[in-house]
UniProtKB/TrEMBL annotation:
Name of the protein in its database record: Phytochrome
Keywords carried by this UniProt record: Chromophore, Photoreceptor protein, Receptor, Sensory transduction
Name of the gene encoding the protein in the UniProt record: PHY
Family membership noted in the UniProt record: Belongs to the phytochrome family.
UniProt-recorded Gene Ontology molecular function terms: phosphorelay sensor kinase activity; photoreceptor activity
CDD domains: HisKA, PAS
Origin organism lineage: Eukaryota, Viridiplantae, Streptophyta, Embryophyta, Anthocerotophyta
Xref: SMART domains: HisKA (SM00388), PAS (SM00091)
Annotated GO biological process: regulation of DNA-templated transcription
InterPro entries for the chain: HisK_dim/P_dom, PAS, PAS-like_dom_sf, PAS_fold
Residue ranges constituting the PAS domain according to the UniProt record: 13-65
Pfam families linked to this entry: HisKA, PAS
């Protein structure tokens, strides 16, 4: 955004950015001071499925983005209200940075992005509209994040199962320890004392295993 702002200030030509087909240019759309769509770049066409000529000149809020059967349908009235607040704030000079924004594209796919909105000015500094940039993840990154979330979900489920098993093993172990302590206070033969001592050693080993138990070591096949 800083680079783009510097570029537009130096060049004084927003079209050089908006209509640039370079894949590094993010989805961009904008409106004039009256709320009509004045910008819709190639990246926005690809993201939304709507061509530039289909949206230019339409009301950005109500005809393009809205809660009814609009070009880019928002999820609800609350989302639309927040979007309007962001646009009005940008028009007043209050830029919005990475505001959560989502809509349904032409094919009904739910698109999630982060919205950055800033005022657009002419050479004299007068506000002429709003410029909006969408920050979206690449397909590869989205797939990687999906896989990561699924992996984390499985790992969390295994951790919960492990915690349950460990607790279920500790309960009878404490019972064995309690029983052994009671036996130590009775008259035992030498053989019985040896059995009790062996039991104590086994209990300590088992308790150490349970205390040190973790999911990664179990998956690797050792404790």
């Amino acid at each position: 955004k800083v680079v783009m702002d510097k570029f537009t200030r130096i060049q004084g030509d927003y079209k050089a950015i908006v209509q640039n087909p370079n894949p590094l240019i993010p989805p961009i759309f904008g409106s004039d001071e009256f709320g009509y769509c004045s910008e819709w770049n190639p990246a926005m066409e690809k993201l939304s499925g709507w061509r530039r000529e289909e949206v230019m000149g339409k009301m950005l809020v109500g005809e393009i983005f809205g809660t009814q059967m609009m070009c880019c349908r928002l999820k609800g009235q609350d989302a639309m209200t927040k979007f309007m607040i962001v646009l009005n704030g940008a028009m007043d000079g209050q830029d919005a940075e990475k505001f959560p924004f989502a809509f349904f594209d032409r094919l009904g796919k739910y698109v999630e992005a982060l919205l950055t909105a800033s005022k657009r000015t002419d050479a004299e500094g007068a506000i002429t509209g709003v410029f909006c940039f969408l920050h979206t993840a690449s397909v590869e990154l989205q797939q990687a994040l999906t896989v990561q979330k699924a992996t984390e979900k499985v790992a969390f489920a295994k951790l919960k199962e492990l915690a349950y098993i460990r607790q279920e093993m500790k309960n009878p172990l404490y019972g064995i320890m309690f029983t052994r302590n009671l036996m130590e206070d009775t008259d035992l033969s030498e053989d019985q004392k040896q059995f009790v001592e062996t039991s104590a050693v086994c209990e300590r080993q088992l308790r150490k295993i349970l205390d040190d138990m973790d999911l990664e070591s179990i998956e690797d096949g050792y404790l």
